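Human:
Take a look at this sequence-structure pair and walk me through the tokens.
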Amino acid sequence: MATANLTSLASNVDLRKDEIDDDVILANISKIHATALKYISAIKELANSALRVPDFKIDQIDKEDIPSIKQPGSFRTTLMQIYDESTSIFAKAHVNMYKIEMKMEEVTDNVTDCKGYLKTEEKDLLRRRLDKIKQAADDVAALLKEVCDAFHSFGNLIQQVIEALMKSEHVITKTITDKIEGMIEEAIKSEEEAKQKKEDEFQQEIEEAERNVSEKKRYWEDTWKSKLGAWLAFLVHEFQEESLEHARQMLDEAKDELKRTKEKVSARNRDKISNEIIQISWKDVRVDVKKTLDRNETLAILEDDLKYIVQLHIACLCMHRHFDTTRIYFDVVTCPRITDFSAEIESVERNAIPIEELEESLQLTLKSSAKTHHSAKMYVQVSDNHLREDEASNDIKEMITAAKGDLC
């Protein structure tokens, strides 16, 4: 696939054309880079939103057709895989292009030094410079291949996720429906249990108040019976009157408390009935449950996921094409010119050709090296400009900082 892409690009791009509109290239890659970062951030937000809705499988497809998907049994996990790999490849692109920028500066310096060493016949220094040029060229080729391979691999992942989603559409819909119905039933059961518990508590309050009335009534009756002992009336008249009055007061207070309890329960029941009229029936999804479990919301999130995944795929294909173009220019133009220059240096050493004939090769090598250097530098600038303070950018910046730290 990568070879086919390279062949296709090579046939459509005039690789020998030195005058390229850098402003157009910069504007295009800047727009593509910004678009890709926007959709990476959107996918992370949707992955977070997916925590509120049922997860589902995307494995209704031959496993051999989706080797890049690590856990097809979980779409939520696959979303995070897309996010992790997308931030990783953008960090790799930044770091590798930064390294290429440094390497091509070395190539330019060493190519210039070689002509001087030829004139002074410092062969050891000349040989060292040629070795460094060759090593730098090999390193740049490897770094460009890493970036292109990373975007190619990521493109495969995205393509496989899209195909798996399309093949699993019916199963996904049924899974979402079944899971949500189960969760709704559980939520309704919990709500009804809580309602029953509250009603039981109300009933206990009434029973407790009624027991209190019964106790106070018994006390009042016992006090009244004791008053019937008329033969003691002349001894304890005042005491008995006070006891009887106290008993009456206790009974009245108990009755009042029972009345207030029943009124409170009645008011609660009225509120409950009123709420049931306003709210959705218990047999339907309640408003608060609907916010997290509604089937339409889940499918809407899935629809957004698919839309953003497709858009990210398009943006990354454009990024891949950009790096492929840079790689092709290096492989077809810059690297051969470096090789030709090294060969001509050796020819001058052997006196096979005069040193004056080296000038054309020197200028062509410097020009193509500068073009590769500029492409790398331009991308690093674009990347720096678009890495903001959002979560995706911060994750990419952390990886870039760690990688650059290893270079020190």
